[in-house]
Amino acid sequence: MQRHDGWRERLGAAARGLAMAGKNPWGKTGPDEGSGANEPRADAPGSDKPGGGESGPRNPWLPGGGEAGRRRSASIDDIFKNRGPAGPRRTGGGPGGPSFRLPERPGGKSWVPVIIGAIGLIWVAVTSVHFIQPGEQAVVTWLGGKYADTLDSGTNITAPWPIHMVEKENVAQIRSENIPGTNIEKLILTSDQNLVDLSYLIRWNISDLTLYKYQLDDPRNALLEIGEAAMRAAVARKKLDEVLTGEGRAEIEQDVRERMQARLDAYRSGITVQGIEINKTDPPARVEEAFKDVSSAQQDADAAINRARAVAQQLLARAQGDASEFNNIYEQYKLAPEVTRRRLYYETMESILSKTDKTIVESGNVMPYLPLPEVKRRSQAQPARPQGE
């Protein structure tokens, strides 16, 4: 009841103060206004100090009626200025802790606009200037959506982020794609109805960054699909033996590259195929042993054929040499038939008699048998005499 009586007295004092000219219901408005009937009694139930120690009424908007011995302002700005969202005081030297204020510029102005402006300038400078390295290009878009421009290597200037968003790409880099990957079998049908396990490498780079970014939904996946289709079409035109040999593989690589580039250009993909390299051409794992036996037999047959061809080449070369020699002799024979005939006779007899141990001469004045080989052996068996004897 005492608390309610105190509130009634305060409200009554406030009403009386409003009736008076220029009176503040919460206290004195100026130094000229003295204490009067508006001040609460010293023994009033709502007074902070017994005996009238308070100089004015308490502020009902502040907890506890304010500090003892001092009036509080009833301004709403002061109320929210002096109190935080959780209750403690923000400023002043009270229980809320010491206050913090930024230093002021000359003239009493705040540094906040200057700091905000400096941060804005740094942001514009950092996000507007782009250094594109050699071999790179960049695509500029409006707010990350609509295409705006393509930047070449060098220093370029755009609108700051996020108005202009820049995405860089290395267009000179040669990229590689292994198909079908590691430890994965890819069987392709040849023209003679055989299967071959084939893996290959695609080397490519970006030729037009704008087309690469916006023409196809997934350029890399399109490249892989086109490469597989081209490889199957090229292998289907070759026999298994041609696919396994080096010459046939080189033809397949060239054919696949041309097919892929033609299709990518038709799609306006912005991709250039630099080359195709076949890494492996093996039979399927399930028939590998049988294929090795067939391959071994084929190699043996090829070796036998090569040996036969070598012998045939030797015989042919010898026959051609004999024929050439006969032609040369015949040319000389036509110039001097008698001399050539005697020469041929002497050379023939010499070659025959040099291989026999007996010589028979049909003449009455000569011994019918001459042991020429025996005489020759005896002469060779006698030791050579010294020159001084």
Q: In DSSP terms, counting alpha (H) and pi (I) runs of 4 or more, how many helices?
A: 10
Q: Write the H/E string, N to C.
A: HHHEEEEEEEEHHHHEHHH
Distance between the termini: 176 Å
Here the CATH topology of the largest domain equals Tetrahydropterin Synthase, Chain A
The whole-number mean of residue pLDDT values reads: 76
Percent in helix: 40-55%
What would CATH call the architecture of the largest domain?
2-Layer Sandwich
Beta-strand content bin? 15-25%
CATH homologous superfamily classification of the largest domain: Band 7 domain
Largest sheet: 4 strands, antiparallel
Q: What form results from the Cα inertia axes? A: elongated
CATH class of the largest domain: Alpha Beta
- Count the E strands: 9
Number of domains: 5
The structural class is alpha+beta
List the SSEs and their pairings.
Layout: H1 2-19, H2 76-82, H3 112-128, E1 129-132, E2 136-142, E3 146-151, E4 154-157, E5 164-170, E6 175-179, E7 187-189, E8 195-206, H4 209-214, H5 219-235, H6 240-244, H7 246-267, E9 271-282, H8 288-335, H9 337-353, H10 372-381
Antiparallel strand pairs: 1-4, 2-3, 2-5, 6-8, 7-8, 8-9
Report what the structure shows.
The protein is of the alpha+beta class. The chain is 43% helix and 15% strand. It contains ten helices and nine strands. The strands form three sheets. Strands 6, 7, 8 and 9 form a four-stranded antiparallel beta sheet that branches. Strands 3-2-5 form a three-stranded antiparallel beta sheet. Helix 5 crosses helix 7 and helix 8 (288-335) packs across helix 9 (337-353). The longest helix has 48 residues, at 288-335.
